[in-house]
Write a structure and sequence with these properties.
Distance between the termini: 23 Å
Strand content: over 45%
Largest sheet: 22 strands, antiparallel, barrel
Helix content: under 10%
Shape: globular
Number of helices: 3
Number of strands: 42
Structural class: mainly beta
């Protein structure tokens, strides 16, 4: 049904008169690299901008759907963060903390880890994706990529109401609207609630979200302020164990080995404010966000694929955190060909974890789990961690001639972290306390050059290259197994070169990039004494090629194809397996696919039929650091079809239509265990828009 309707829509699109749209790859503006608006075409880095219109035409309202056809990026849904979360991969590195997630320029998750589970895409204006680090604008918080989610201006747009219903008793309702102006203040309000179920036993999440944003035009500038609250309740899934070189068949695909009452519940509240004013030759921007969250966790994992008790280990803990972020920078133009950006930012994080762990027994099918309330802690564990990341940064954007675009930036970082742990073992009445502190002062920088080799009307060819040097303090996930000693910071330097082109009068866009990144002290999960722990992983090398093509033969028809080749390998890392030291040099990093590709066809018009078809291919991945276990490649299909009449759109969307269930991310809490791709999902939605554009 979906395929047939799309064929009709495609035939209609082919009959429409041709137009000469701007280059689909380089027509957009981004602020992710320098904090000042820069055209994507001359930015000397690989940047993708996904607009509100792109999201609507794809029916994409979550991060995986939004980035499903972005070169070199794969978003694995779920993970240790719960079914509402995800684990992105950039440049061949799949780590939940290796990238930066920002909302309107402020890190979401603060000084600790990207808070993907709390990300909401209601009323998003655009999503900017930078591949590789942002060592100047964001400093010690980004490594292999940045995702910046940007909302529209308060008071802009129209009123939108969207409702959905789908597989596994899933459903949602979302509303956003500008509010009546009060005085000089413009306001917008968003509210949404959702429930999503899964084929996995006892797995789902419910989310409620409220966002109120305001702006006031003052004599010399604009004042912005807002409040955001999110309430999340997750019943987590269980990762699937590997025994030997393959996932075990003794455990059913959708088995859940958590105790009853398991959950990952979080409340997060954020205050934000900003002030921007024009200067004689530029602007001065200030931002501050304060976030307070509390997470309550009860969950467990199999430790042995046997029926010998105990065969599982669980933990319960409460994790309150406070994050404060502030940035102040000026962008000015002493010369029409020169832009200078200079600023200061500070990121403060204070968090603690209080809880304990316990052993229990559960059958391999997960049919008769014990009650969480009946399981008593074997120890009381307290963790305290405080982080302060500060930076002075400056960046110069110089266009000495029409064909040349140069960006140079430097940053001085100071990071300070203190940590304390307190563990009381109830059986032995043994108490162990420890404290550690690490202060680092280190620079970072970026140098990039773009040369416009050819331009003729809407046709152009831009060649670019860049060098980046950065570092990042080691992650802490507040797991009760957290090492009392603060790990060494991760460091990386990379080179990248590529081209961006618009051909056929702007109807064809091509972007090709090649990169190499040398990495030291990557934080890895490793079992130490039978317990998962985080360790520094020696040296790694990441290199690859990424290609994007976008063809728009007609205004209502778009065909996008992406391909990537990644080679992520250990260069020098010695670890133990069964007590035997093993050198992993030359081995590929686990869960990093060497080849990935995707293609998408989108059709649509102002009224009538619209839709999309997407196919994603992920190559084989090693499941183990020694490369002794391998997961085969797989293909997934997704599609959506909708009908737009006036301001009302009805849609039917399906993801993973061929119902593939491969391993997509590795647990850092359960040893040799992997989260599987969620099963096939269908969703029916209705969207009403009053005022603004129906697109």
């Amino acid at each position: 049904m979906i395929a047939g309707a799309l064929c009709q829509a495609a035939a209609w699109a082919a009959d429409q008169p041709a137009a000469a749209p701007a280059d689909p790859l380089v027509e957009r503006v981004q602020v992710i690299t320098t904090r000042a608006p820069e055209p994507v075409e001359t930015t000397p880095a690989s940047v993708t901008v996904i607009t509100r219109d792109d999201l609507v035409r794809r029916g994409a309202y979550d991060l995986r759907s939004a980035l499903l056809v972005a070169a070199g990026i794969d978003i694995a849904p779920g993970g240790d963060g719960g079914p509402a979360g995800s684990v992105p991969e950039f440049w061949g590195l799949r780590e939940f903390d290796a990238f930066l997630l920002a909302v309107d320029g402020s890190p979401l998750g603060g000084a600790f880890n990207p808070s993907l589970v709390t990300l909401d895409l209601t009323d998003v204006d655009r999503i900017e994706i930078l591949r590789g680090a942002a060592p100047v604008s964001y400093g010690a918080t980004s490594f292999v990529g940045v995702i910046n989610v940007i909302h529209g201006e308060p008071g802009s747009g129209g009123t939108m109401l969207r409702t959905t219903g789908g597989s596994y008793d899933s459903g949602s309702i979302a509303w956003s609207s500008p509010l009546p102006a009060w005085g000089d203040v413009k306001s917008s309000l968003e509210a949404d609630a959702s429930h999503q179920g899964f084929s996995d036993n006892r797995t789902d999440f419910a989310r409620g979200h409220l966002r109120w944003q305001n702006s006031r035009q003052m004599e010399h500038g604009v004042l912005r302020f807002g409040i955001e609250s999110l309430f999340l309740r997750q019943d987590p899934a269980s990762p699937h164990p590997r025994v030997g070189t393959s996932l075990t068949t003794l455990v059913p695909v959708d088995a859940n080995h958590n105790m009853t009452g398991a959950g990952i519940d979080e409340n997060r509240h954020t205050l934000s404010a900003g002030y921007e004013r024009k200067l004689d030759t530029g602007s001065w921007s200030n931002t501050v966000t304060i976030s307070r969250s509390r997470q309550d966790v009860l969950r467990g994992f199999l430790t042995d694929v046997t029926l010998v008790a105990p065969n599982a280990h669980g933990f319960r803990e409460s994790i309150p955190t406070l994050d404060v972020y502030l940035d102040s920078h000026m962008a000015f133009h002493p010369d029409p060909k020169l832009e200078v950006v200079a600023g200061f930012d500070h990121l403060y994080g204070n968090g603690r974890a209080d809880g304990g762990d316990f052993d229990y027994f559960v059958d391999l099918q997960g049919d008769a789990p014990p009650s969480g309330s009946s399981l008593s802690n074997q120890a009381a564990i307290k963790i305290r961690d405080r982080r302060e990341f500060s930076g002075l940064y400056g960046q110069v954007v110089w266009t000495p001639a029409e064909r040349w675009h140069l960006e140079l930036g430097a940053r001085l970082n100071r990071t300070a972290e203190s940590r304390s742990t307190d563990t009381l073992d109830f059986a032995s009445s043994t108490r162990v306390k420890s404290e550690d502190r690490r202060d680092v002062m280190r620079g970072g920088g970026f140098a990039g050059l773009t040369w416009t080799a050819w331009r003729s009307g809407a046709n152009a060819l831009h060649l670019y290259t860049n060098y980046r040097n950065t570092y990042k303090p080691a992650v802490i996930d507040f797991g009760l197994d957290a090492d009392p000693d603060i790990l060494a910071p991760e460091t990386a330097h990379s080179i990248e070169a590529g081209l961006k082109s618009g051909l056929m009068g702007g109807r064809l866009g091509i972007e090709l990039s090649a990169f190499q990144m040398n990495f030291e002290n990557l934080v890895l999960s490793q079992v130490v004494g039978g317990v998962p722990a985080l360790v520094n992983g020696g040296k790694q090398r990441f290199r690859g090629i990424e290609l994007t093509t976008v063809l728009r033969p007609r205004p209502a028809l778009e065909w996008r194809t992406v391909y990537s080749l990644h080679d992520a390998r250990f260069r020098d890392y010695v670890t133990e397996f069964g007590g035997v030291p093993t050198q992993l040099a030359g081995k590929r990093l686990e869960m990093s696919a060497r080849y990935m590709a995707a293609t998408e066809v989108i059709v649509g018009r102002a009224e009538g039929w619209r839709g999309s078809v997407r196919s994603n291919w992920i190559g084989s991945r090693f499941l183990s650091k020694r490369n002794t276990a391998i997961a085969p490649d797989y293909i997934t299909w997704s599609a959506g079809i909708g009908y737009l009449l006036g301001n009302v759109e009805l849609r039917l969307d399906g993801t993973n239509l061929n119902d593939q269930r491969p391993p997509v991310s590795e647990s850092e809490l359960g040893d040799a265990q992997y989260y599987l791709l969620p099963a096939r999902r269908l969703e029916v939605s209705a969207r009403w828009l009053l005022g603004g554009s129906p697109h």
